[in-house]
Amino acid sequence: MPLIKLISFDSKTVKLISANSLNSFLVKAEQKLGYKIEKILLENDKTEILDEENFKNLVHNSKEISLIALKQIIDKNAFENSKVQHQFQNLEPEQNEDDDGIKYFYNEYEQILNLLQNIKNEIKPKLAKKNKFLQK
Questions:
Q1: Predicted TM-score (pTM) of this structure
Q2: Run of H or E residues at 40
Q3: In what order do the strands lie in the sheet with 65-70?
Q4: Out of 43, 56, 86, 128, which could bridge 66 as a Cys pair, Cβ 3.0 to 4.6 Å?
Q5: Dihedrals φ, ψ of 61, to 5°?
Q6: What is the distance between the alpha carbons of residues 28 and 22, in angstroms, rounded to a whole number?
């Protein structure tokens, strides 16, 4: 299941949710945020997620998913002009008993990132030597 970063309409709350369907996502999102969600928007371009097909395409075609949960219907321009701040660099999952394995997935993600960084650090000098050899 993919991890989805969910941001409340006022940007004061950020949660990580794992879900494979829009319905499952909405149920979990409403439980975590504590309000009825009327619209879900992509954080980067404010595109509305309208149906299951949109959600599935997003999940399958995106590495990182950040969605904004709107509590009330507002127009796109008002949203863009609001005081929404995107300062979620050091996001960590909430730790509770019903997190559906989010902590596990987050830890796995961190381990994979560390492994890839180590591989990159090992390969980089070897590639530099190879390039110098080929240039001679």
A1: 0.52
A2: strand 39-42
A3: 14-18, 3-8, 65-70, 39-42
A4: 43
A5: -110, 5
A6: 10
